[in-house]
Design goal:
Elements lengths: L9 H17 L16 H15 L5 H23 L7 H21 L4 H10 L5 E13 L2 H9 L13 E6 H8 L1 H9 L7 E5 L4 E13 L6 H25 L9
Antiparallel strand pairs: 1-2, 1-4, 3-4
Helix pairs in contact: 1-4, 2-3, 4-9, 5-9, 7-8
């Protein structure tokens, strides 16, 4: 018999095994078989405990510190099994949410360590190009006026000149960050809302006074794939985790008949 494609997925096998183990541990509150009271702390368990310590402390644990972690692991395991045996997980909203989170984590575990190749990352980069756009660049001229009325009058009279100020009369292909450093946040916000055109626009206010602006160009730099590769990989992994969680849930949901009484 040929199994459907989804049934051959390792993720499905992993989730099915997790579900079987969960049912075996929580089926009832009767005393468990004596064999199940044996707790084995495997080399893999110890490696996971060591890794968790290293992620938290930014260094590998000493032998004594690992022994403390192992003792805590055994303590937690004993209390966890006894709690399940007594049925303390039943009807507990906190436990329920933690188990839901655990199942979600199980579904995403493979994606967290997956190493996508360049072709996958470049495809993701191309599909989400707007996310990796660099700074917005603007080219403009500005004329300064102490009072708003002076700026309004000059707007009506194209031959009127602005007043003297130490600010540059024009900037070419300047980032909004550069504009803000020279003209201030208020001016930069207003400039970002203007559309490029040949005519003077404004008045635009700044911390210095008022300005007429002739915005000739606005463009966005595109970050190269190589310069944002690490960010692209992180974003790809987050998207992959979300996708695998949803796919795993859909597989599990297909086994249920859901009725909602409205």
């Amino acid at each position: 018999m040929t199994l459907p494609a989804w049934a051959r997925e390792p993720l499905v096998h992993f989730l099915a095994l997790g579900a079987v183990l969960y049912v075996a541990l929580t089926w009832n509150a009767d005393p468990v078989d004596p064999a199940s009271r044996s707790i084995a702390v495997t080399a893999e368990d110890q490696a996971q405990l060591s890794l968790a310590f290293e992620r938290l402390m930014r260094r590998a644990p000493t032998d004594a510190e690992l022994d403390v972690r192992i003792s805590q692991f055994v303590r937690d395991e004993v209390l966890y099994r006894e709690a399940l045996r007594l049925g303390l997980d039943q009807g507990d909203a906190v436990v329920r949410q933690r188990m839901v989170a655990k199942m979600d984590m199980s579904a995403s575990a493979a994606a967290e360590v997956a190493k996508p190749d360049d072709a996958q990352l470049r495809a993701y980069y191309d599909e989400n190009a707007a996310r990796y756009a660099g700074d917005v660049l603007v080219s403009f001229e500005q004329a300064y006026f102490t009072a708003e009325s002076g700026a309004i009058a000059a707007l009506r009279n194209p031959d009127a000149a602005g007043e003297a100020i130490s600010l540059p009369a024009s900037l070419e292909a300047a980032s909004l960050r550069d504009v803000q450093s020279q003209f201030g946040e208020e001016f930069t916000r207003a400039l970002a809302e203007l559309e490029p055109e040949a005519a003077w626009q404004g008045p635009v206010r700044s911390g210095f006074g008022w300005h007429l602006v002739r915005l000739s160009e606005r463009s966005a730099q595109t970050a190269s794939f190589d310069s944002v590769r690490e960010r692209v990989e992180n974003d790809w992994r987050s998207a992959e985790i979300a996708s695998r969680k949803e796919a795993a849930f859909e597989v599990l949901l297909s086994a249920y008949q859901v009725e909602i009484d409205r």
